[in-house]
Amino acid sequence: QRSVTGKVTGSNNETLAGVSIFEKQSKRGTTTALDGTYKIDVPANAVLVFSFVGFKSQEVAIGNKTNVNVELSVDVQALEEVVVVGYGQVKKSDLTASVSSIKGEVIKEFPVSSLDQALQGRVAGVQVSQASAAPGGGLSVRVRGPNSILSGSEPLYVIDGLPIYPDNNALGTGGNRQPSNALAMLNPNDIESIEVLKDASGTSIYGSRGANGVVMITTKRGKEGEGRLTYDASYSMQDIARKIEVMRADDYMKYINKLEVSQGGAGRYSTAQISAAGAGTNWLDAVTRQGNIQSHQLTFAGGTKGMRYAFSGNILDNQGVVISTDFKRYGFRMNLDNDFLGGKATLSNSWSYSHMESSNVPTDRGGPGGLIITALGLDPTVSIYDQNGNYNYPSYDGRFSINPVAEAKQGYDKDVTNRIFGTSGVTFNILEGLKFKTSIGVDVVNANRKSFYNSFTRLGRQNGRELDKFNRNLTNLLNENLLTYTKTLSKGHNLDVTAGYTNQHEVNQYDAASSWGLPSDDVNSMNLQNGAKPQTPYSGRQEWNLESFIGRVNYSALDKYLLTITVRRDGSSKFGPNNKWATFPSAAIGWKIANEEFFKNSKISEVINDLKLRASYGITGNSNIPPYQSVSGLVPFNYIFGGQLAAGYGANNIANPDLKWESTAMLNIGLNTRLLNNRLDLAVDWYNTKTSDLLLYVSIAQSTGFSTVLLNSGSLTNKGVDFEANYKAIDKGDFKWDIGGNISFVRNEIADLGKSTPYFASSPSGHLGIDGSWVEAGNPIGVWRGYEYAGLFKTDAEGASYSAKAGYPKYTDVNNDGAYTSDDYKIIGNPNPKFVWGMNTSFKYKNFDLGVFFRGVQGNQIRNLQQSEIGDGVQKINQLTNILTDSWSSENQNGTRPVIDGRRDFISFRKSSFFIQDGSFIRLQNISLGYRIPVNNKFIRSARVSVSGQNLFLITKYKGFDPEVNNGGQSNLNRGDDYDAYPRARTITFGLNLGF
Amino acid sequence: CSDLKENPDFINPSTFYQSAKELELGVNAVYDDLTMGNGDWFNHFYNRYVFECLVGYQVGWEKGPLQYNLGNISASDDYINAYWQQCYRSIDRANNIIETADKIQDAANADKLKRIKAEAQFLRGFYYYELVRYFDNPPLKITSTQSYNDLPSNDGGKQKVLEQIYADCSAAASVLPASYTGADAGRATKWAAKTLLMKAQLWGQKWAEAKATSEDIINNSGLSLYADFGNNFDISHKNQGERIFEGQASAKANSAEYTNHSAHFNPEDFPSDLGGAGWSWLSATKDFRMSYKSNDKRIDATFIESYPTGRTAKNSKGEFPMVKWSEKADYNLSRFGGLVDPNANPNNPSELIFSKAWSGKLVELNISSYTNAERNTIYLRFADVLLGHSEACNESGQGDAFASINKLRERAGLEPLKGLSQSALRDAIVDEIIHEFAFEQVGYPELRRKSKFGGNPDYLGAYIKRYSDTYKVGRTVKAKDYVLPIPLIEIQGNPNVKQNPEWQ
Q1: In angstroms, rounded to a whole number, what is the distance separating the alpha carbons of residues A871 and B75?
Q2: Which of A797, A948, B380, B435 is the S-S candidate for B244 at Cβ 3.0 to 4.6 Å?
Q3: pLDDT (tens digit, 9 = 90+) per residue, A133-162?
Q4: Is B275 part of any domain?
Q5: Predicted complex ipTM exceeds 0.85
Q6: What confidence tens digit (pLDDT) does each residue in A617-665 have?
Q7: A633 → closest Cβ in B12, B28, B342
Q8: Which chain A residue has its CA at the smallest distance from B5's CA?
Q9: Is A566 helix (H, G, I), strand (E, B) or coil?
Q10: How would CATH label the architecture of A2-75?
Q11: Does position A692 have pLDDT exceeding 80, yes or no?
């Protein structure tokens, strides 16, 4: 017997506390102290085994040494071992479902205000599009394509077990703009990992909410050990990445003269006036500025035996590139785990509170008066202020007087949102392998908006000032009860069973009031009762219940054969009395080929280190529709009698007691493999999805008195391939080089519409007089239909029957009747990409790290509605800079744009393919350089500084601010329309991380 | 499971109607589509003014009005869809009220219950008339819709619909009061029902019946013409005298109850500082304005003769200068054609002229915003009865065909008609309808009612040709101009409905 001492370290020379050490024969052991040192008494010639979670175990023969220092190396396989899935976790190697994971560090690479932004380009099969580039602006995420036409198609987010559906509208506060991001309450810095469940095997445990994929979010929890304080900060500067150039004042005057002459008048401006005008006012510059983002976060985490904690507080403050737009978040999170009953039970708490404030201006809308479109199109000959410093009000298109600077600075539109969400649960370890967990989850949202339009704004002048208030209160309560049982049946045969019952109830109430005719321009002094003309207030309540039974069996045999069977039975209040309940089953098998003897013995195992084949099939549902759709009701249709308001009530819809779930059947076949000495990791998944019983507002014969009824009608398919690869190109001591990439292809097609006739989705802009997406079987979702642009008429005679002249746009006359009517419409564009991809690479050399992240979208189209106004050559609004040079005229017969002519019909032009543009792009999403400062200080544990750039360059043919636009918000229809979009920023970020 | 039952935040229709009190709330909603029903921007009357542009004399320089001016219509037209939807949703509401009235036990209010049912019958007749006058063969549905499979047929064609209108109007006329007071002003009266009946009889060419109905109204209603033609459209004579039935609007009563007519018909260059709308772009042609005799007293109320413009510089007093209508001003169909020259001297009245024919019947220039509109929409007035009477007499060869039309001409300050042949008087009556009712959006249906494609007379063809020739629009008259197509959605979604022959 003698003593051996030593120190255990990790690969970065950091000391490891709590490493277990035992003597192989006697099994007697100890653990390392906080400084990594240990002392153990051993017999002669003992062998010591060192093991620690996340590291490869090491055996050391002691011989006659008395001091043994050990360096443990990281066990890559072990670290990636566990993957979070619905209601549980599985070893990655035992996974039968198609799941992609993102680690928390990746999300921290550059500042994002919400986690869904961080998914962009990171995961195969996931497309993230921005509904508004405004600070805190809404996003829309599609996992493996849109599986519905009308129902909400965002994935379900499960945050530490609490399912949240991110409907921006249902959580927003209305107002004259796109709603803010419904997931902005979650601080991305708190995230430990994200798992995206993509196939039915992964999602069917979420039953009626699983069809759009599930994003599992796990926040950081404390680990046993001394408390550690971390401070993360960043400061970013933002500028508009790409500006749209419109004409200077002198060119604008020449353009207006051409218009006036074309209408039979004389030119409006004299040559002298034109040469004196110069550049005039650049209204876009006048309403934009340099923006910035500040982010600060303090995290304190640690634990003792039986108690683990993590606290974090964060502030995010984003001043947008458009004046008067900003977003602030103050967040606080507490994750606390306590063991009790002698370790037989654990109480887990994950709670978060956030307070968000935003200031907004009208952008990303279809109607007139939006700040960006107004700034682009407004008369540049007028200055912002007159000689007395008062606002000038130039006329937009001769239609209304407006000053976008006054709109932004004097208009007031602020949101305040408070949100508390989280779960508390107790897990009892009843017997070995048998656990029972019961939990409650709560999501409480209180959001309000105050808008005020004083007499300097357009609405304020029209309505004698206007004050609007909106309040929303949402309470979502969840109770879950879960029984899990794990058992090894016999050697190599493992069973894992989960069964549960859950119940969720949501009430979402809102009220809004508005008052006109107010006496003061000071927003702070005004209340609703100050208005001489109070408007009819409105309110509503959206309430639903979801009751569910869940079950899952995982069985693995001989570490080669895997089987997962999942079922969920959901009952939802939202559906018709005849169809409240539905069952969503799935099954999956996995075959670890690499563990087969024949494989191990063959030469191929020298090249292919690991190989697993997966197949799954299952059915999931979609219940993201508003409540009360299966019943008919009476709603107000008021009228006037005798000069007084008279209440009236009429039916809102036709009842449909058979209303039921959309169901999505998905077949997924996948392969995971590792090659080249475990350095290349590949995952390929092929899937085929069919959604039937689509919930459609079927357009019905209007002689029924109704134009639509919500029916289960039709089906659509998504077929695709997801591909992910990670390659450790170099891993040599000080130098590491990793490359990762993903690419996904999806083809969407509406297979049939059932009882519905083909139809145009509601117009994104009555102001523009254009149609929404065209919905017809045989087409992908979201295609545009209109006139096919076919060049310009060369002569008046050629255009005569079309009421057109030389230089007017020509369209394909489909029915050859010599006139352009809607009978000549064709499919003219498709907003769905052929593929989306992301690629990142990182280099680490000693204390330096460099990361580069590209992503792109290929083969999609955008309808540039903004150009259909500022590039039509007809309206009296400012136009693109090339309008004078590129427009056809008798002197410029090779002109590529139609003749500048005030008599020309610009609505049919707007409905033509002329404005459908290629939206493909390659973006340098992020490039960052970091340096870990060597510290030798009692207080500071670690320090890192970094500098990074986001969206530094973009390759695209698209002519708008940015090809990533989506006026349609989260809808599957009217996607890819560009009008009045908030300009996207280019960002430079400086970061600092300190560990204490 | 009981907690999966929904408790919606709206009223349950199966338990709501207990007495006449609730039923009245139901019938009120049947009126709603007469103005901005459901807040529709493309509301009932708006769609009618888009249809009117098909004739050509009323013009707009973009969207629907322009396409109708060019004769470019299809069965999937947005305005036709909206109009069809509004008519049938109101018909379904009326069907519901008529059925529910028969089920309610409310002895204490038996008369009110009967009146409400009669109002619903009148309104059902009204909306069917609105359909027949544009579409000829709308499907007929007189029971309320319980399921989306409740699909009516148009097998009976125009005749069956007209007979339903006769029946509904007759039933309503026997119950409805001659007039209302106070808070009920604006509801359908006995005389509204009879006027509608007469109009339907004219459509059905039941000349003797139409003559009898019009004489009943002329002799027994006590209605007479206002001395001032303009009283028909102003705010101070709402629901009075000559005005028989109108869509009610009052932004003062409630800001949602305005109409968007002013928004569309205000002069384009009326300054937005004074309440210019930004959408104003509908007018009539200079040629149409010129077709009025210069001494016609209806001109003042029919057109805007002068208004302040924001198109020129302000005048020496710093005000927007007033522009005056003048035949000397240039005119073309484009947006700014016919407006004052922007370089006109703001202090020289002789340069401050315009030639567009802006509607005086629909606009309100003194309300600071189009959303403050107070004017009602006129649907039936005594002039309908008088012109109907002359037409019925002329077509049937019975009675004095000149007396009634001459009452209107007398008020207009025009010489009386006499000694005209039947066909010459027919021409004169059509001409009178167009000028008496300009901007009331009846021209297209009235012209097509009296016309046949390639036939004689062909008033509609003549109007279209004149418009196209005068302004070199290059439009040729075609059979499809003579009736609107039944919406494609109806044809595709309802196997019981056949498209109009001109559109097959």
Answers
A1: 30
A2: B380
A3: 888 888 888 888 888 888 888 899 999 989
A4: no
A5: yes
A6: 999 988 888 899 889 999 999 999 999 999 999 999 899 889 988 999 9
A7: B12
A8: A573
A9: strand
A10: Sandwich (2.60)
A11: yes
Residue B421: partners with Cβ closer than 8 Å, 6 or more residues away = none
Q: In angstroms, rounded to a whole number, what is the distance separating the alpha carbons of residues A663 and A669?
A: 20
Give the ranges where A391-483 is alpha helix by DSSP (H). 404-410, 458-462
Position of tokens 């009790």?
A340
Which of B272, B279, B332, B486 is the best mutation test for A, with the most CBs of A within 10 A? B272
Tokens linked to A139:
């996003």
* Inter-chain CB proximity B63 and A907 less than 8 Å: yes
Indicate whether B320 belongs to any domain. no
pLDDT band at B367 (very low <50, low <70, confident <90, very high): confident
Q: Does residue A78 register a pLDDT over 70?
A: no
- Start-to-end CA span in chain A (Å): 41
- Read off the pLDDT of each residue in A847-855 and give the average, rounded to a whole number: 92
Residue range(s) in chain A whose domain bears CATH number 2.40.170.20 = 82-235+291-361+411-757
Residue B2 confidence (pLDDT) above 60: no
Cβ–Cβ under 8 Å, residues A140 and A760: no
* A863, A784 contact by CB (below 8 A): yes
Do A650 and B4 count as a contact with CB atoms less than 8 A apart?
Answer: no
**Number of domains observed in the structure of chain B:** 1
Residues of chain A with CATH 2.60.40.1120: 2-75
Of B189, B216, B185, B200, residue with least CA distance to B132: B200
**Do A400 and B272 count as a contact with CB atoms less than 8 A apart?**
yes
In this complex, how many residue pairs, one in chain A and one in chain B, have their CB atoms less than 8 Å apart? 277
- Nearest-angstrom CA–CA distance, A993 and A539: 46
**Average pLDDT value over all residues in chain A:** 90
- List the single residue in A with minimal CA-CA distance to B35: A639
pLDDT tens string A349-395: 999 999 999 999 998 887 778 899 999 999 999 999 999 999 999 98
Taking CB atoms and an 8 Å cutoff, what residues of chain B touch A800?
474
Give the alpha-carbon dihedral of B459, B460, B464, B467, to 10 degrees: 50
Contact B84 A902 (CB under 8 A): no
* Range(s) of the domain holding residue B79: 16-176+486-503
Residue owning tokens 């024919």: B357
Question: Angle B190-203/B207-220 helices, nearest 10 degrees?
Answer: 160
C-beta separation of B333 from B340 below 8 A: no
DSSP class of A893:
T
Q: How far apart are the two ends of chain B, measured CA to CA in Å?
A: 52
The two three-digit tokens of residue A61, written as one number: 């023969």
- The reply to whether residue A643 touches residue B30, judged by beta carbons under 8 angstroms, is no
| CATH code, domain carrying B156 | 1.25.40.390
For A82-235+291-361+411-757, CATH number out of 2.40.170.20, 2.10.109.10, 3.40.50.920, 1.10.1650.10 equals 2.40.170.20
User: Are A264 and B250 an interchain contact pair (Cβ–Cβ within 8 Å)?
Assistant: no
Amino acid at B442: V
User: Does the N-terminal peptide bond of residue A809 adopt cis geometry, omega within 30 degrees of 0?
Assistant: no
Percent of chain B predicted with pLDDT > 70: 99
Lowest model confidence (mean pLDDT) among A765-774, B43-52, B159-168, B243-252: A765-774
**B406 belongs to a structural domain:** no
Q: Residue A422 forms beta bridges with which residues?
A: A351, A442
β-strand A225-240 against A291-304: which pairing, if any? Answer: antiparallel
Report the residue of chain A nearest B372, measured CA to CA. A463
Predicted local confidence at residue A81, as pLDDT: 67
User: Which is nearest to A782 in space by CA: A663, A919, A906?
Assistant: A919
Task: Kindly indicate the confidence band of residue A96, based on its pLDDT and cuts at 50, 70 and 90.
Answer: confident
Per DSSP, helices labelled H in A146-240 are: 168-171, 200-203
| Chain A CB contacts of B488 below 8 Å | 757
Search chain B and give the residue with CA nearest A802.
B474
Indicate whether B377 belongs to any domain. no
